[in-house]
Design goal:
With about 550 residues, this protein is α/β, with parallel strands linked by helices. Helix content is about 20%, strand content about 20%. Helix 1 links the parallel strand 1 and strand 2. The longest helix is centred in the last third of the chain and has 20 residues. The relative contact order is 0.21.
Length: about 550
């Protein structure tokens, strides 16, 4: 056993682990974070000022992505072929009968900061009605808490990261304004808001974890539009620049990178005694009175299921049999076009404008859960000429080059993200025969779209196309869809919270029902996905709530 003592050990340095560490160290607790991935240095790793920047996505380092496998992703019904992914240059992406993972598949970052390092930076609160799907609509699952239970924690997180947003977001009532004013709109978003004023749709400036003014010793955003490639200025509110930076200043936080946890050791009473991680010198066993698992909705259930024993044959915290179940992916749609007369749409901040009109669970006819729409030129990768040349503008030679000169900067995109309901076919399992280099079975993602998801995708597609038609688009150049390709940046639900230990993994504060000192602080907890909101702010709010319960 190691000699150094900590009051809590946190597994994972992403949104939830970082927020929990900040809250605990603020009250004087000594905390260790074990992170499976590496550190990223904004000064050297995010080379957006170098030639070839457009060909480089967020940098991949050794151990910076966990390997996953894919199982049942569902079959394609030709009756829904209008939802297929395609573009003008390549044609249809998935002509076969099966839904397949896209090139990015489960898009995540394993490293100090987690997926907030490459996220676009949307800072969303869940719609208050999303907390009671089962009660209100007899489907999905209720949260064991409500919007009011998280509101103060939302406010704390927004203040720490320097969120910029509008005065009001409708049903999302606030106890105080956003700390910073909203960002100016990009040229593409200005066109969408002008059309919205004519059609009566509720578009507005999006709430963003990027600084619209200098704040907390960080500079204002320069609007390069490359948030998903990593922010070299440090204005984006990724947790390495916010929660972790402040927690480290206390002197009470230790972070060990490239330290994958292999075992979580429990005693006869069910209490967690220690965790075993791999260091450059071999296995290390670290005792802890409190263990917080914040590895994400794929790796968290993987660790719980892999830690089986004589007393826990189905894995840690799995007395309910719900670990790994209720997996919910990201349901997405985007329509892109080249709009004559539009200039410089590659400039500005990603996801700077949003439409909440259809975000409530009952806001879309024929489907439950809701969705939201954004202006999404940057998110789909049309912020440089290579994206145009390989996807939007076919041909070669002199005519092709002239088209590129004439049309670059005219792309406009409406994207939608929608709710996903839990389904018994969608879950995380362990591979029976494939393991990683540390001996842990690889996680297998099974994710099948329900009829509710298909109906919601039809609504999202129809509405996105209609929005673009309203501003003068007559021909589309690209559409991307969850219908035929699994591409998930946000995943949820595999260790959900609840009041009843028979059908949930943790209680309403994130403490596992089976282990009194094992807590979970990531999107595994979500009983429902929400109506397309970006989840990082809710993950952080839940982590603060859990940390306060631990402090009690």
């Amino acid at each position: 056993m190691t000699r150094q003592r900590f009051d809590a050990v946190i597994i994972g340095a992403g949104a939830g682990g970082a927020a929990a560490a900040w809250r605990l160290t603020r009250e004087g607790l000594k905390v260790l974070i074990l992170e499976a991935g590496p550190w990223f240095d904004p000064d050297t790793d995010y080379s957006l000022d170098q030639p070839g920047w457009e060909r480089r996505p967020f940098p991949h380092k050794p151990n910076s992505r966990g390997k996953v496998l894919y199982g049942d992703l569902g079959k394609l019904n030709t009756a829904d072929a209008d939802l297929a992914s395609w573009n003008r240059v390549e044609g249809r992406h998935e002509p076969g009968p099966l839904r397949t993972p896209s090139r990015s598949g489960y898009a995540h970052v394993q490293g100090v900061g987690g997926s907030t390092l490459h996220y676009v930076g949307e800072a969303h609160r869940l719609h208050p009605k999303s907390f009671s799907l089962q009660t209100d609509h007899a489907t999905g699952a209720d949260w064991p808490l409500g919007y009011a239970d998280l509101e103060a924690h939302y406010q704390t997180c927004e203040t720490l990261i320097g969120a910029a947003g509008p005065e009001s977001q409708g049903a999302r009532w606030r106890s105080a304004p956003f700390p910073l004013p909203p960002h100016p709109l990009s040229p593409a978003s200005e066109r969408l808001l002008a059309a919205a004023a004519r059609s009566g749709m509720g578009w507005q400036a999006n709430s963003r974890a990027a600084l619209s003014a200098a704040y907390d010793d960080r500079p204002a955003c320069n609007y390069c539009g490359q948030c998903s490639r990593g922010c070299p200025l440090r204005d984006k509110g990724s947790v390495d620049q916010t929660f972790l930076r402040h927690a480290l200043k206390t002197g009470l936080l230790t972070i060990i990178a490239n330290a994958p946890v292999r075992k979580i050791l429990s005693g006869a009473s069910g209490r967690i005694k220690a965790v075993e991680y791999l260091s450059e010198n071999g296995p290390v066993v670290q005792e802890t009175p409190i263990a917080i698992l914040a590895a994400g909705a794929v790796q968290t259930p993987r660790l719980l299921l892999a830690n089986q024993g004589r007393d826990i044959p189905s894995g840690l915290a799995n007395g309910s049999g719900q670990v790994g179940r209720n997996f919910m992916e990201t349901l997405t749609w985007s329509s892109a076009a080249l709009l004559p007369g539009l200039k410089n749409s590659h400039m500005g901040l990603p996801a700077d404008a949003i439409c909440w009109t259809y975000n409530a669970p009952d806001a879309t006819a024929g489907a439950i859960g809701g969705c939201r729409f954004t202006s999404a030129v940057h998110e789909v990768g049309l912020n440089g000429p290579i994206g145009y040349a390989t996807r939007l503008i076919p041909g070669f030679g002199t005519d092709f080059k002239q088209q590129m000169r004439d049309q670059f900067g005219s792309a406009i995109v409406v994207a939608a993200t929608g709710a996903v309901l839990p389904d018994e076919r969608s879950h995380i399992a362990l591979s029976p025969d494939q393991k990683d280099e540390n001996g842990l079975p690889l996680p297998v993602i099974h994710s099948v779209l329900t009829q509710n998801s298909i109906s919601l995708l039809h609504f999202m597609a129809k509405t996105a196309r209609s929005m673009l038609s309203e501003i003068g688009v007559t021909e589309f150049a690209e559409e991307n869809s969850s219908w035929d390709r699994f591409t998930a940046t946000h995943v949820f639900g595999t260790a959900r919270m609840g009041n009843d230990s028979a059908d949930s993994v943790t209680n309403p504060w994130g403490r596992t029902h089976d282990h009194a000192n094992l807590w979970i602080a990531d999107a595994s907890l979500f009983p429902a996905s929400g109506g397309g909101e970006a989840p990082s702010l809710t993950i952080q709010a839940l982590a603060l709530r859990a940390a306060e319960k631990i402090l009690e």
